[in-house]
Amino acid sequence: MLNGFFTAASGMFMQQRTLNVLSNNIANAKTPGFRSKRVVSTTFEQALLMRQEGNNSVQIGAGAPIRIVDSVPTQFDPSFLQETGRPFDMAIEGDGFFTIQGGEQQYLTRNGNFDIDEEGYLVLRGQGRVLGEDGAIQLNTSSFSVDEDGTVYDADGRRIDRLLVVQPEDYNALQSYENGMYGLDGAQMENMQAGNVRVAQGVLEQSNIDMNREMSMAMEVQRTFQSCSKALTTIDQLNQKTVNELGRL
């Protein structure tokens, strides 16, 4: 009976986790360059639980050590580019990430919806300043151009800087933050500058969210969650009935 209880409870946990991820995907469908996430479970289709020996196990109930196995990898599939005509909008064609200085930490992003702040620096609003090879890029003007290799020029054709576009060796090592931002520790951030970079100005890369798929999956997850909840209620009622009957003996 307890095994059924833990299985149903774990099913609810997994479906809630999945629903949270889907909700975040849907909320960021309009965020430029956003990459969707997926909950990958090796246990839900196989009774939700996997017995495991070792120090990483979680003791549930009085049975053998078990743990819920899942991960939430980012889907780095590319999306399409949409022209905006806005000079501050930029997109990377192919692999690579823009580099943003947010406080004391550097972040990576595919979101090129840039702007200019009060001090004339190129920024990603709410995140930080856009970095070039020489540091934060200071424009001091809205009249500028960006070559395909990411080099930024002022209105007179003078070179200002070159966008720092980096290419991580291992995408799985990226730490995911909100709004399509990613990070690596300082040591890993070194020597990651991308080689053959193509930057487009006046365009934005859209998110790779498939709204029809996300909504369909969300409805399916909600139904499964409700089924697990009903199963948990039934098991609880049976347990209570058993306890009451034993009390009469």
UniProtKB/TrEMBL annotation:
Residues 200-244 form the Flagellar basal-body/hook protein C-terminal domain. One of its GO terms (biological process) is bacterial-type flagellum-dependent swarming motility. InterPro entries: Flag_bb_rod_N, Flagellar_FlgE/F/G, Flg_bb/hook_C_dom, FlgE/F/G-like, LlgE_F_G-like_D1. Residues 91-153 form the Flagellar hook protein FlgE/F/G-like D1 domain. One of its GO terms (cellular component) is bacterial-type flagellum basal body. Residues 7-35 form the Flagellar basal body rod protein N-terminal domain. Keywords: Bacterial flagellum, Cell projection, Cilium, Flagellum. Signal peptide: none annotated. The keyword S-adenosyl-L-methionine does not apply. It is found in: Bacterial flagellum basal body. Belongs to the flagella basal body rod proteins family. This is Flagellar basal-body rod protein FlgG. It comes from Hydrogenoanaerobacterium saccharovorans.
